[in-house]
């Protein structure tokens, strides 16, 4: 990819925002990102807005135009993106493509989701899908992977719990995380069982939230950085990969081909390997998800993910910290915003602005996201590699 | 017989995915097969994903092996029982791995790799509150069943 940078990021704390409309939350994040990037509304050449649920929950459509006009952006192309949990990261990949192709100098991604509403219902992969009609709810697909992982590799409930405990410990250091009170392995394992073996503290919580990212060409960034006397701090986009499932049958539930393929394509595009990473945000929708993603990312050999978590190697201070933000498990998971919030965290880490959860000297970071179930596979996988 | 009445009045969760259940004989999943590409499908798509020609409906049988299972203890969707069980089942004839409901009355009996056989019965509702017929797998295989039928003098009933 030709040179693309992230110029600014912004987000609102994830949690309950009953007094704020979706558009207000999104505008707040967008404004913060524009300020961070020192970019004026009139300089943005293309805008992407991502959301997963508002069409169903609020009968709202083409929300992006409303959001962007709240921050003074009009006339330009605005794209509304829905892609389940990867909505925002998919929007980011599209925005990168436009900047890399020279179509625009500055592009922007805003993701937002409002989930704390009485009529939310269950999250699934489409009401008319046969699997949904046969009782497949989101946690069940991952519980089935967990059961196979335990049977094939001896992964234990304690190892699953270690992921939740670690991410909560990280979240305590992140003011934007929804749940920040420490939890113990006993808390995790004695929480109500949702789908065997996943207890409630092993499933990511709903959240209201919004996050935004401003991208630019490297040329624009150099000019803007100079004009701001170094106040603007660009982060290089080394890879922004988006792939969809193979839906091959039978699916191997523990070697997730789509996940592995997404990670491999991103490493190839970025010219780095797992050993080069300093910090990772991954899609820990459930504790087992993070363990599977360790393996897909090559942070450990296949089958060793549970032991990697238990050994503390993915905790802050460990060999390769994963989800220093608290991850989906503790920050909360508003699908339309999660992918952008992950980028906010990696940018903060690479700029050295992550405060008490800073990974010392982090120079290469990766954000990984997956979304949607189909045929025992995932409908989408995005992997973004950033560096300074 | 209330069960028969229910079977007659309840609608199938999705048309065309099972056969052989109407007379209670031997339910089987119906999928698709493309003879040119030798590819099996469940459910049956309109077109083969390799050659884009129409796919023939294919009997996938009613027997399989349990590849993975779990029990859903949260508030269930679609009027399903609480708790209920689901799994991935490797079908005997085609080798397809399909997601399916498991018999909720046998929750404590599931073991990896155990043989399963298909049942179709009222399980949950269709989203508008009407009883709904759903396929689900139960422990055991048709072989045991056939022996039982022989023992009790019951003949094999075939549907067409």
Notes on the protein architecture:
The complex is a heterodimer of chains A (388) and B (160). By secondary structure, chain A is an alpha/beta fold. Chain A folds into two domains: 4-117 and 207-237, Thiolase/Chalcone synthase (Peroxisomal Thiolase, Chain A, domain 1), CATH 3.40.47; 130-204 and 239-387, Peroxisomal Thiolase, Chain A, domain 1, CATH 3.40.47.10. Helices cover 38% and strands 19% of the residues of chain A. Chain A has 14 helices and eleven strands. Chain A has helices at residues 22-37, 54-58, 63-70, 87-100, 130-133, 138-153, 157-171, 185-190, 218-227, 257-270, 287-297, 305-310, 327-331, 335-351, and strands at 4-11, 46-50, 78-81, 106-113, 193-195, 198-199, 209-217, 235-243, 279-281, 364-374, 377-387. In chain A, strands 3-2-4-7-1-8-11-10-9 form a nine-stranded mixed β-sheet, sandwiched between helices. In chain A, a hairpin with a 2-residue loop joins strand 10 (364-374) and strand 11 (377-387). Chain A is globular, with a radius of gyration of 19 Å. Chain B is mainly beta. Chain B has one domain (3-146). Chain B contains two helices and ten strands, in the order H-E-E-E-E-E-E-E-E-E-E-H. In chain B, the strands form two sheets. Chain B has a five-stranded mixed barrel with strand order 6-7-8-10-9. In chain B, strands 2, 3, 4 and 5 form a four-stranded antiparallel β-sheet that branches. In chain B, strand 7 (84-91) and strand 8 (97-102) form a beta hairpin. The model of chain B is unreliable at 145-160 (pLDDT under 50). The chains are: A alpha/beta (388), B mainly beta (160). The interface between A and B is medium-sized, with 31 and 33 residues.
């Amino acid at each position: 990819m030709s040179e693309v940078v992230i110029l600014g990021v912004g987000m609102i704390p994830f949690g309950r925002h009953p007094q704020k409309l979706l558009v207000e939350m999104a505008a707040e994040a967008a404004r913060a990102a524009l300020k961070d990037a020192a970019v004026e509304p009139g300089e943005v050449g293309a805008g992407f807005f991502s959301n997963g649920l508002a069409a169903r929950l609020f009968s709202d459509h083409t929300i992006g135009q409303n959001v962007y006009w709240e921050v003074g952006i009009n006339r330009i192309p605005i794209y509304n993106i829905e892609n389940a949990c990867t909505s925002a990261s998919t929007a980011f990949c599209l925005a990168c493509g436009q900047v890399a192709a020279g179509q625009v100098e500055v592009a922007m991604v805003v993701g937002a989701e409002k989930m704390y509403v009485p009529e939310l219902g269950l999250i699934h992969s489409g009401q008319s899908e046969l699997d949904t009609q046969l009782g497949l709810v989101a946690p069940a697909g991952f519980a089935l992977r967990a059961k196979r992982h335990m049977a094939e590799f001896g992964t234990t409930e304690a190892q699953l719990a270690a992921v939740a405990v670690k991410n909560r410990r990280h979240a305590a250091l992140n003011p934007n995380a929804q749940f920040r009170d420490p939890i113990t392995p006993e808390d995790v394992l004695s929480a109500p069982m949702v789908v065997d073996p996943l207890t409630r503290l092993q499933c990511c919580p709903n959240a209201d939230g919004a996050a935004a990212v401003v991208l630019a060409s490297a040329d624009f960034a150099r000019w803007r950085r100079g004009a701001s006397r170094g106040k603007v701090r660009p982060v290089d986009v080394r890879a922004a990969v988006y792939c969809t499932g193979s839906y091959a049958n039978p699916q191997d539930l523990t070697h997730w081909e789509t996940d592995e393929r997404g990670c491999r394509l991103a490493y190839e595009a970025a010219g780095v390997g797992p050993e080069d990473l300093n910090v990772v945000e991954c899609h820990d929708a459930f504790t087992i998800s993070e363990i599977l993603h360790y393996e897909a990312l090559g942070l450990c050999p296949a089958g060793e993910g549970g032991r990697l978590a238990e050994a503390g190697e993915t905790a802050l201070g460990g060999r390769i910290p994963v989800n220093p933000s608290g991850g989906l498990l503790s920050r909360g998971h508003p699908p339309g915003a999660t992918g952008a919030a992950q980028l906010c965290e990696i940018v903060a880490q690479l700029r050295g602005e992550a405060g008490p959860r800073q990974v010392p000297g982090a120079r290469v970071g990766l954000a990984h996201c997956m979304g949607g179930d189909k045929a025992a596979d995932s409908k989408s996988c995005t992997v973004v590699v950033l560096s300074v | 017989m209330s069960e028969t009445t229910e079977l007659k009045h309840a609608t199938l969760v999705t048309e065309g995915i099972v056969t052989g259940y109407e007379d209670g004989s031997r339910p089987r999943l119906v999928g698709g097969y493309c003879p040119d590409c030798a590819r099996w499908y469940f459910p049956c798509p309109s077109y083969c994903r390799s050659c884009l020609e129409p796919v023939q409906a294919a009997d996938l049988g009613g027997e399989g092996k349990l590849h993975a299972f779990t029990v859903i203890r949260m508030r269930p969707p679609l009027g399903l029982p609480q708790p209920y069980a689901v799994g991935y089942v490797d079908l005997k004839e085609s080798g397809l791995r399909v997601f399916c409901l498991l018999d909720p009355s046998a929750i404590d009996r599931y073991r990896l790799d155990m043989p399963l056989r298909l049942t179709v019965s009222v399980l949950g509702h269709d989203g508008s509150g009407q009883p709904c017929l759903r396929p689900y797998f139960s422990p055991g295989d048709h072989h045991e069943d056939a022996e039982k039928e022989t023992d009790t003098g019951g003949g094999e009933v075939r549907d067409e």
